[in-house]
Amino acid sequence: MLIYQLFILGCLLVFLGILIKNLFDVERLPAHSPKAFPFVSILVPARNEARNIESCVQSLLAQDYPNFELIVLDDNSDDGTGDLLQALAKNSNKLKVLHGSQLPENWLGKCWACHQLSRQATGSLLLFTDADTWHAPESLRRAVAAFQQSRADLLTLIPDQTLGSFWERVIVPLVHFSVLCYLPVKFVWENRNTAFAFANGQFMLFSRDMYEHIGGHESVRKALVEDVWLCKTVKSAGGRPVVFSGIEAVRCRMYQNLEEIIHGFSKNLFAGLGYSLFGISMVGIISFAAYLLPFGFLGYALISSLFTIEWFWLPLLHIILGVLMRGLIAVRYRLSIGESFLHGLSILMFLVISVNSVRWIKTGKGALWKGRRYDFSKSA
């Protein structure tokens, strides 16, 4: 028992070490302006985004960057998104609205929408961003400065996450946790191994040359987690992807209730692990052993008055380390510190969503998102 508890402690200390290193390595966007102002095409796919699209477009039109165009594609929305976009376009000569064509075979919706956008873009830099984002006026200027400073081919951001409901505050921060505690982010741009890959589709700034060199979104047209696979493709092509913290520049509200969280995470989780049952099983086992099982040991120790190192003190330390990691992330990325103490509940929900993600794919029910269902049972 003692050896097992020490092993878990060792794993948690490794995760804590990776986190602390990442907090230093992932720099904030520079405040200064770029040396030059290349023409940027800002590209926004929008499907059923009536509740977000006005805020997103208005924030992008308000950029203090002097040289850009904004193209938004209405991807066959049925909630009034198209009408809102047309009204916005009447008041700006920088905004161009496209009507998406029907989704062809062997394409996923977002990849097809981004592909159509890229074919209309004229910029030497291409910024793909989601319709549920909001951008500070200086965000593009700072991002281009970081792009030039880091000699990037692809720049992606970790944005500020707006969290409203209880379940958002409990579950959504696991996105930060899974990246910052398990992935040495510096390896994304310093190590050529494509296993070290991260990108966030909420903000991806490409050089046009690299984007076209890798085949754009067509190269990942069947990928549900297209942002990470684009990063892998850039690395495979010899390009340089970089990651910055963009919490002062860009914010996003990914989901607004528990149902949306379950659907969104279920869509991405199994796919993000390459449909590997072994991979998702190992992640689940480690998560259970490191963050949930210590509560069981602690409860048994309290009931049985077993205040020993292996039954009480080490499990208590495991729980403290999990909360500490969540707390450090919360401080850096302006998340709720209070929900750090509910880390066990977060992990429990993560395991439930993991099972649902596998079930969706393996049973052929398919991943459901934005009114479309994608059957990847053969891929899995």
Automatic annotation (TrEMBL):
<dbReference type="Pfam" id="PF00535">
    <property type="entry name" value="Glycos_transf_2"/>
</dbReference>
<feature type="domain" description="Glycosyltransferase 2-like">
    <location>
        <begin position="41"/>
        <end position="214"/>
    </location>
</feature>
<keyword id="KW-0472">Membrane</keyword>
<keyword id="KW-0808">Transferase</keyword>
<keyword id="KW-1003">Cell membrane</keyword>
<feature type="transmembrane region" description="Helical">
    <location>
        <begin position="311"/>
        <end position="329"/>
    </location>
</feature>
<dbReference type="GO" id="GO:0005886">
    <property type="term" value="C:plasma membrane"/>
</dbReference>
<feature type="transmembrane region" description="Helical">
    <location>
        <begin position="341"/>
        <end position="361"/>
    </location>
</feature>
<feature type="transmembrane region" description="Helical">
    <location>
        <begin position="269"/>
        <end position="291"/>
    </location>
</feature>
<dbReference type="InterPro" id="IPR001173">
    <property type="entry name" value="Glyco_trans_2-like"/>
</dbReference>
<keyword id="KW-0812">Transmembrane</keyword>
<dbReference type="InterPro" id="IPR029044">
    <property type="entry name" value="Nucleotide-diphossugar_trans"/>
</dbReference>
<protein>
    <submittedName>
        <fullName>Glycosyl transferase family 2</fullName>
    </submittedName>
</protein>
<keyword id="KW-0328">Glycosyltransferase</keyword>
<feature type="transmembrane region" description="Helical">
    <location>
        <begin position="6"/>
        <end position="24"/>
    </location>
</feature>
<keyword id="KW-1133">Transmembrane helix</keyword>
<dbReference type="GO" id="GO:0016757">
    <property type="term" value="F:glycosyltransferase activity"/>
</dbReference>
